[in-house]
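I'd like us to work through together how a protein chain folds, taking it slowly. We need material for that, and I hope you will provide a protein of your own picking. Go ahead whenever you are ready, and we will take it from there:
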Amino acid sequence: MKEPGDPVVGFAQRVDARILARAQYGDMQAFAALYACFGRACFNLALRILGNRSQAEDVVQEIFLKMFSAVRSYRGDAPFGSWLKRLTVNAVIDQLRQQGRDGETGGGEGGGIAEFVADAGNAAANIDAWGLLQRLPARARAVIVLHEFEGYTHAELAELFGQSESYSKSILARALRRLGDIADRREEATCRKT
């Protein structure tokens, strides 16, 4: 549980205005500082959705390359972390689209999400939950992670995926039902063994 006074991490971090201004003028040390602050958050989000460590690393590289030129257009209408999170989600969705064109539909590398959870130091129950998510197709996992963990609305998901709101609602409902079925089968198997 987060205690008052704990350092802010992830996309909620505040960015020093001087660092941001220097980055907007192309200062590489400022970019390095932004990467140090937000690289892990970008990677964790990409890994949760993609379930594949090497793809997540590639996406993070792509995000920061895009940010190199896009930061000049950042106007400060939203917190910088929110703006960068949006860049990250867009890059991950682009990666999912590319996978669809290339015929990839699987759940990613074995252990990708489990490695993320282990890195984060979460309990065994969380590893099991992430393991269940790993068994979903990439788009279903993306909808669950973005809606349930990142707080995206169905309208925002519809815009991201270029679909209707009913698309994300349908994907979410089917994915949650599938997760429930998988969990039920696991529980039944465990009960039979004992």
Q: What stands out?
A: The domain at 10-193 is CATH 1.10.1740.10 (Rna Polymerase Sigma Factor; Chain: A).
